[in-house]
Amino acid sequence: MNFADSEIVNSIMTKRGMDPVKSPEDAAVIFINTCSIRDNAEQKVWNRLNYFRKLKQQRKGKLVVGVLGCMAERLRERFLEKEKLVDLVVGPDAYRDIPHLLSEVEDGRKAVNVILSQEETYADITPVRTTGNGVTAFVSVMRGCDNMCSFCVVPFTRGRERSRPVESVLDEFKLLSDQGYREVTLLGQNVNSYNHEGRDFAELMYRCSQIDSEMRIRFSTSHPKDFPDEFLHVMREQHNVCNYIHIPIQSGNNEILERMRRTYTREAYLELIQKMREMIPGVSLSTDIIAGFCGETEEQHRDTLDVMRTVQYDLAYMFAYSERERTLAHRKFMDDIPEETKKRRLAEIIQLQQEIAGKRNRMEIGKRHIVLVEGTSKRSEVQLSGRSDTNKMVIFNKGNYGPGEYVEVEITDCTSATLKGTVLRSVRLSDTIAELVTA
Ligand code: 5AD
Ligand code: SF4
C-alpha cells in the first residue's frame, strides 16, 4: 500500500515540476512514507530520520524533510516538537495538499495536514510507477478500514473505508494494459470489502478480468468476513485471476479471536478454507499470524500451531504482538506476555511454517507452472525470476526469454522460499488451461 501511495505522491511532485533523484544525498526534498503497524516499523523510520537530520545539518538547513503516511497521522505533534527534524507532516489522505504545504515550508513555516477524509481515493491521479519493472503494477481500489480489530492501529491512521468508482479502476487498468503491463495487484487495506454504490469486489474483479486476457490479476489484502461464493466463482472461472488468496487468520484460538474482534471462529475460518480449496482446485493460501496477543496461554498458542498444520499455508507473514496506542487492546487488555515468550512463540510459528512451506514446495517438483517473467534473478545474472499463478517465486535459466513473457516451467528443485525449474516454452496466458497448473 505504501509503495502504491508513494507512486501517487511521485505523480503529484512530478506535476509540480520536481524530478526524482536516485539517492537522498542528491535531493532537495526528501519524503519518507511511513508505517505504524508495529513498533519496529516505526523504529526504522526514527533511525532513518536521524540520518536525514545529519544531511540537513551538512546542507545548513537547505533540505526539506517530510514525513508521510501513518506515522504522520499518529504522531503529528511529536514530529513538530523535535526541532529541525522534519518540516512537513502529511497524513495518508492529504497528499494532494503537498505542493501547497511545500510553499508554506519555503515561506519558513512548518507545514502539517493530517486531516482524514471520507472520500479521498486519489482516483484521478495516475501513479508514476517506480516498482514492477514495467511488468507488474499496483492499483489501489479502496482505502481505509472499518473492521476495528482490537490490535490494529490502521483504522485510526488510515480512516474509514471508501472505494474508487469501478470505471476509474477500469480506466487505469486499460492504460496499464496499453503500456504493456502483464500483472496488476488490486490493493486495499481490506480489498474484498470494496463497494462503490452497490458494486462489490466480485463485480469489480470480473470487470477487470475482461479487459485484457493476457493480464494477470492479484489482490491484497483481505479479511475472511468478505468471501462470498460469487467472488470465488469469478476466481475459478476467469483464467487470468490468479489462484492465490492471502487470508489472515491471526490466531487459531477462538477466545483470542474474540478478543481480537476478528468476527469469525476457527471453525468458520476452516470451513471457508475448505470451500476455497473445493471451488478453486490448486489454490495457494497465505496468512498473517500474531504471536503473544494479550492473555494468550501456551495452550492457545498451540492452537495456532495446530491450525497451521491443518491448513498448510504456502506462505505466512508472522509477527510478535506489538501494542499500539488508541486501539481497543491498548485500552482494554494487558499486554502481559513477556517479550521473551512472544519471541519464543514467534520462533516456533516461523519454524513450523518453514517446514510446511518446504514440504509444500517439494510437492511441486515435477509439476509445470505458467510463470510471468519479472526480471533477472537477484542471485544470478544468467537466471530469470518470476511468479507462478499461485504466487511462488520461480528461478530458471535465461535462455532467450525476457521480462513480461509468460513461460511454461517444469519445477526441478526448491528451497522453502523459491522453486527452481527449466523453461519448456513461451506461452500466451489465454491459451493455457487451469489443468496445466495442477498437472
Ligand atoms: N502487532 C503485531 N502485528 C500486527 N498486525 C497488525 N497490527 C499488529 C500489532 N499491533 C499484523 C496483522 C495484520 C498485518 C498486516 O500486521 O497480522 O494482518
Ligand atoms: Fe487492521 Fe483488522 Fe483492518 Fe486488517 S482488517 S487493517 S488487521 S483493523
Give the CATH superfamily of the largest domain: tm_1862 like domain
Rg over C-alpha atoms, rounded to the nearest angstrom: 22 Å
Structural class: alpha/beta
For the record, give the distance between the C-alpha atoms at the N and C termini, rounded to a whole number: 34 Å
Shape: globular
Bound molecules: 5'-deoxyadenosine, iron/sulfur cluster
* Strand elements, count: 19
Reported by name, the CATH topology of the largest domain is: pyruvate-formate lyase- activating enzyme
Number of domains: 3
Corresponding CATH architecture of the largest domain: Alpha-Beta Horseshoe
Strand order of the largest sheet: 15-16-17-19-18
Number of helices: 15
Strand content: 15-25%
Give the % helix: 25-40%
**Unreliable stretches, pLDDT < 50, 5 or more residues?**
none
Report the average pLDDT across residues: 95
Largest sheet: 5 strands, mixed, barrel
